[in-house]
Every structure is written in structure tokens, then in C-alpha cells.
Amino acid sequence: MARTRVTLIHSEVEAMLKSAGVRAVLVGPADRVEAAAKASAPVSSGAYRDSIHRESATTDRAVELVVADAPHARVVESRTGNLARALGSV
Known about the structure:
This protein is α+β, with helices and mostly antiparallel strands. It has one domain (about 25-90). About 55% of the residues lie in helices and about 15% in strands. It is built from five helices and two strands; from the N terminus they run αααββαα. A two-stranded antiparallel sheet has the order 1-2. It starts with 9 loop residues before the first helix and ends with a helix.
């Protein structure tokens, strides 16, 4: 039986990973993670919950991040694991 040979063109793969199509695939799940994180966020003043948002970035590929940037977000996250649980639920 003949062997199939696959040759990847690095520049094309790199361009595909940064493409709008790949980003579009990532945005939906990231938005669901953001919604889940906001829904389950502990609320004292609301600052932590209100600081949860999605950010787009590009490294060697398209990336969607869900972050909380309130000054005390690290403390809340270390105690509750809210963002990690939201990611796991989606």
C-alpha cells in the first residue's frame, strides 16, 4: 500500500492560526466562559464581577482570554477559583 506524505507549509499554518476564522471559533466559547464567571462571581461591592471581561490577543496564534482585572481579583480567584470553575463548566 502506498504511503501518504503530508507536507505542512509553516507560513500557511501560522497564518491560519492567526486568521479571523479561528478567532471566530474562539469568541463564542470565551463569551460563554465570561457569562458563567459573571453569574457565579461572589459579590460584595460588585467590582470583581464587573471587572470580568474577554480580551483578544495574538501570540503565535489567535487567543481569547477571560480575565478579571479588579485590584483584588487575584485574592478572590485564589479563594474561589471562579474563573477556573467557569472555564470548566463551559
